[in-house]
Amino acid sequence: MDNNNESTSDNAGSDWQPVHGKRKGHGSPGTSNQPTKQTRIDEYLPPVSTHNKFGVLTNGSDEGNQDNQQSQSDTTKDADNAVRVPKPPPIVVHDVEDISNLTAILREKIADNYTIKAMKRNDVKIMLNTVDAYRDVLKVLREKKMQLHSYQYKAEKPFRVVVRNLHHSTNVDEIRVALEEKGHSVQLVWNARHRRTKAALPIFFINLAPAVNNKDIYKIDVLLHTKIKVEAPHPRTDVPQCTRCQSYNHTKRYCDRNPRCVKCAGLHFTKDCTRKEKDENVKCVNCLGNHPANYKGCDVYKQIYKKTFPSLRKKDVRPSVNGGEVRGVGESSHVRAGTSYAEAARQGRRQQEQIDQSSDTSGSQPRVSDDMTDLKIMMRQLMEQTSSILNMVTALVSVMSKND
């Protein structure tokens, strides 16, 4: 029984055929649907085996080139990662009557490792190539009591930040210790005060020693259990003035000139002046005018400020109705005391309406005269065309009368 079943299943399996879909083909029923494209043959001939006996040398040279390229790239990266040493600042020597004495001192100290530039009023600028030469020359010139000033070396300039929202009575030593615990080297901490009232503000200035992690201080938001905000200081918008010699574009820390008083222009420090009270008889060191040397309205200060901060565009000045001048965009206008914003706005609107009316009335007269001229031209053309038509009609009538 079992054998018959197995034979029956084998016969059924041998007679089984797969059922294809009823999709109609384009060919005849006896042909198959297999692709008839010719097989692509890339090479009709078998490849020829070759052997290069210099292959070993080629591989060795390639490896050597790769090693050289790798070493060159490593050298370039090291050069890029190396810290660039900034050039030393210049030294400006004043009141130089004989340049040979100065050049003799320079040659004796640093040989030919310098360049000089002659400036106005017998001033000479000395540019050194190395920091060591700069320090040696500065030391020698100071020992000879020469009138000079210099600037801070850029590599030694501290990294200054502003810390806000910290109470003004906070101890500066505690701030220093807290920042040093966070990995910063603090040089100086001081509290900011109001410029006029001299009142203490919740703002502290902090000088950090130059380091790689200086900018990490901006990530600090809590200091001494206080929510703070660390910012970069605002850029200066004025010309620095030395409080020792009262000249501009340098500070007293790097100045070795004779002291001058800000009040009387005397050869002494301002703190040593005998004038302790306000006095109208003052004298400016720079322009010799009747004002203190730190007065922002000084003509010398205005010239230097205009040269240091040139204006981006000229101010637009328009003529007004009364023949005066109307301030343009970007120019400040002064409002009288006791005038509200609404009154000032109405006044400005009235001035604008007067300007518009004056422009309309001034432009109406030439516009009317132009219209009259155009009308006269049109009438003249019309009269000429009418006369020509009348001449043509007269000639036509005469011709018709002759034919009759």
Automatic annotation (TrEMBL):
<feature type="region of interest" description="Disordered">
    <location>
        <begin position="319"/>
        <end position="369"/>
    </location>
</feature>
<feature type="region of interest" description="Disordered">
    <location>
        <begin position="1"/>
        <end position="89"/>
    </location>
</feature>
<feature type="compositionally biased region" description="Polar residues">
    <location>
        <begin position="355"/>
        <end position="367"/>
    </location>
</feature>
<feature type="compositionally biased region" description="Polar residues">
    <location>
        <begin position="1"/>
        <end position="14"/>
    </location>
</feature>
<dbReference type="Pfam" id="PF07530">
    <property type="entry name" value="PRE_C2HC"/>
</dbReference>
<feature type="compositionally biased region" description="Polar residues">
    <location>
        <begin position="58"/>
        <end position="74"/>
    </location>
</feature>
<feature type="compositionally biased region" description="Polar residues">
    <location>
        <begin position="29"/>
        <end position="38"/>
    </location>
</feature>
<dbReference type="InterPro" id="IPR006579">
    <property type="entry name" value="Pre_C2HC_dom"/>
</dbReference>
<protein>
    <submittedName>
        <fullName>Putative nucleic-acid-binding protein from transposon x-element</fullName>
    </submittedName>
</protein>
<feature type="domain" description="Pre-C2HC">
    <location>
        <begin position="172"/>
        <end position="240"/>
    </location>
</feature>
